[in-house]
Amino acid sequence: MDSLLTMYITLVCVSGVFNVFLSIYAFSKRREIPGAGTFMAYTSALAIYCYGYAFCLASDTIREVKLWTTVEYVGMPFSAALGLMIVLNYLGRKVSGRTAAVMLVIPAITLLMVATNDYHHLFYKSMVLREGLPAPLVKIEIGEWYIVHGIYTFSCLLAAVVLLIGRWRQTSRTYRLQLTVMLCGQFIPMVAAFLYLLGIAPGGLDPVPIVMCVTSSLFIWAIVSTKMLTVVPIAKETIFESMGEGVIVLDPAERLIDFNRAAAAMIPSLHLSLIGKTLDEVWTLMTGSPFPAARQPQGMKEEIVWTTDNGCRCYQVRSSVVRHRSGEQAGSLLMLIDVTELKRLQRDLEHMAYYDGLTQIYNRTHFIHQARELLKESRTGGHSFSVVLFDIDHFKQINDSFGHETGDRVIVHVVSVCKRILGENTLFGRYGGEEFVIALPSASLEETAVLAERLRAALEAEPLTTADGEVAVTSSFGAAQAAEPGRDTLESLLHAADEALYVSKRGGRNRVSVCNQAIRRENR
To answer: Can you state the percent helix, strand and coil of the chain, rounding each to 5?
Structure first.
């Protein structure tokens, strides 16, 4: 065997060894390398290609050449498609199982065509040994499927190169060395394959396995020096599109430049045809009015409400200025954060803090807070101020006879009857248990007593209907008025109303009693 051919076979085998090493490395780091399975398949395919071609060159007969050519094609046609998958994964474009299967259809057909070529001659029309050469190199006449295979292989390599070149400007300097190695790993074999397909390769030998010795060496060097494969850059547009927050990009004139997938999902009316219009124009087209949040140079935090078929959503809007490296403003970002559930939770917590859970009227704490404010206003205006305390007669007996569930229904029933008479603007609260309180600013003691009597009569006239029959509901009332608001406190007024309430209880219940604070002070 000629020494030059021996050297060529040796280099091809070295390429195979490098690819075996890369495959083993990927297996050992499979938990750290995204798409490790694809990379293992790729390097394994290249190793089979190299070893198959090396044995083909060392063969003595046409039968051996055909056998090792078939082995060579177990790896070679799949390597281009697998290389393209690796590039797509590297660029953050996930390849689904179905897409991968489709990409490997032509390579699988190529392998089948080579293995059965003697029956149809669609891949090689003829294969004959060349005479007068130091090794039994083969002269071939290509068939129809060989052309299909060549076009597909070259297309995969070209697509990978174009994708990597297209990512160059968007890749930071830190990762450009990685990108260069990936680019060489596709570009150099592509050029070599192109020369071989044109039939102008030196000596008619396939130069791809030789150049893979170079590209595999680059891969190994890049893995050691730049942590390639284990530390992979994430494309900026991948981050932009995968963000959970909606992002709207504006230029310095506040024209819409771009928006991500999350923003489109939050605001379905936002579409590409609106790009180039100002934010106010966009919002006017979508809602009929300009953008509702005031824009500030940096750090704006506003809230907007967007109504969809599924209800209203609340978005917090945050602004951020985007600058060129020179410091000049390039535009701005509006980030939309869905705070609907947070707002709902805040409303629920506020409601729990202010309202009674059973009756949905003010609880004792919030009633007292509101009543103090009304009393303060009455002092300032020189108006009278009255309160009414009442509770449900024989409530313990109702609970014991009908159960606590019916007792709760009685409480709700009392509130429902009273709210119908009091109106929405009256300060009405649950004072505790079966006891309730009403604040009446600017009401005289006579007017307060009349209102209390209306409530008493309405409750007496409307028993609660249950499955066990009607439950009679009556209440005892105590009313008190601060004749001199400037000298009375809410606590003293409530105490006076409580004393009047007990007068009603001692008098037989289901009645109204009144107590005037001024009279009480004179009698002390």
So the answer is: 55, 20, 25
Bridge partners of residue 11, in order along the sequence:
none
Rg (CA), the chain: 43
Residue 337 Cα distances to 267, 332, 366, angstroms: 12, 16, 32
Task: Tell me which residue of 497, 503, 505 sits closest to 479, measured CA to CA.
Answer: 497
**SS3 label, residue 317:** strand
Nearest one of 182, 162, 174 to 222, comparing CA atoms: 182
* Cα angle: 269, vertex 271, 272; to 5 degrees: 165
CA dist., res. 476 & res. 513, Å (int): 8
Q: Is the pLDDT of residue 46 over 60?
A: yes
Closest Cα partner for 11 from 210, 221, 218? Answer: 210
User: pLDDT tens digits for 354-384?
Assistant: 999 999 999 999 999 999 999 998 888 888 8
Alpha carbons within 13 angstroms on the beta-carbon side of residue 431 total 19
Supply the DSSP symbol for 234: P
Is 84:160 a contact under the CB 8 Å cutoff?
A: yes
- Planar angle of CA 18, 21, 26, nearest 5 degrees: 125
Crossing angle of the two packed helices 3-28 and 208-226, in degrees rounded to 10: 40
Q: Count CA within 13 A, CB hemisphere, residue 326.
A: 3
DSSP 420-439: HHH-TTSEEEEEETTEEEEE
Residue 318 CB coordination number (10 Å): 17
- DSSP labels, 452-492: HHHHHHHHHH-PEEETTEEE---EEEEEEEESSTTT--HHH
DSSP letter for each residue of 20-79 = HHHHHHHHHTTTTSTTHHHHHHHHHHHHHHHHHHHHHHT--SHHHHHHHHHHHHHHHHHH
Nearest to 47 by CA among 77, 68, 17, 7: 17
What are the phi and psi torsion angles at 454 (to 5°)? -60, -45
Q: Which of 446, 453, 497, 501 is nearest to 477 (CA)?
A: 501
Is the pTM here over 0.90, yes or no? no
Bridge partners, residue 319, by sequence: 334
Per residue in 216-244, is it b (16+ CB within 10 Å) or e — as a string?
bebbbebbeebebbeebbebeeeeeeeee
Instruction: Quote the tokens at residue 160.
Output: 């990978």
Q: Which of 95, 96, 93 is nearest to 235 (CA)?
A: 93
| Gap between the Cα atoms of 157 and 185, Å rounded | 9
Cβ–Cβ < 8 Å for 475, 455? yes
Max intra-chain CA distance, the chain: 139
State the amino acid at position 150 in one-letter form: G
Convert the pLDDT of each residue in 99-141 to its tens digit.
999 999 999 999 999 999 999 999 999 888 766 555 556 777 8
Distance in angstroms (rounded) separating the CA atoms of residues 513 and 518: 16
Alpha carbon distance 357, 360 (integer Å): 6
Per-residue model confidence as pLDDT tens digits over 324-347: 767 778 888 888 888 888 888 888
